[in-house]
Amino acid sequence: MSLQDKLDAFRADFKAGKPPFNAPPEIHPVMERATAELIASGQAGRAIKAGDRAPHFNLKDQDGNDVSSAALLAKGPLVVTFYRGVWCPYCNIELQAINEVLPKIQAYGANVVAISPQSPVNSRKSVRTNELGFPVLSDANGQTGADFGLRFALPDYLVELYKNLKNDLPAFNNDASWTLPMPARYVIGQDGIVLYSEVNPDYTRRPDPSDMFPVLEKATANV
Question: pTM to 2 decimals?
């Protein structure tokens, strides 16, 4: 089953109000409105894309260690996935899918990091819950997401919905701004140039990890 098939199956259950979320039907039009507005804004088209130079970052991993893109790129190509947080089931499904193909990614000589605005405590929860074999980095105040052109502010009506659902982003992120990154995945070559990019303003849509393999194979062949 492809990653998108898994996401679609979850979405169908979520919209049907099935456990464990038991989502009330009135929330879906609100969430879909916010997604449609983000798509219409065109922000995804302005984000960092293939052919651009990737912004440098130096972030803390789930254990408080410094992780820099420069150090990782010195070892090989780098896969970077931006996600919303451990509270997002779509993101967890994606992280699990990437983890499943981690040995193949590593066989290309590449490293993987996930980046979210959540606090290190919640990054540790992401690693533990999803049994990840790669680090999860905390993007304090969402600055790296902003550097990649991914950070956006939630509209007021979605903030109110999240508050009603007890989805307290300021607590998850240790940041009062109510901002998130659009989900995105990048392959960055050792020269710092983005070789592959996929930005998803619709958080229910994610590319399959296998889409990266031809790019990683080519990047490895060029080393």
Answer: 0.96
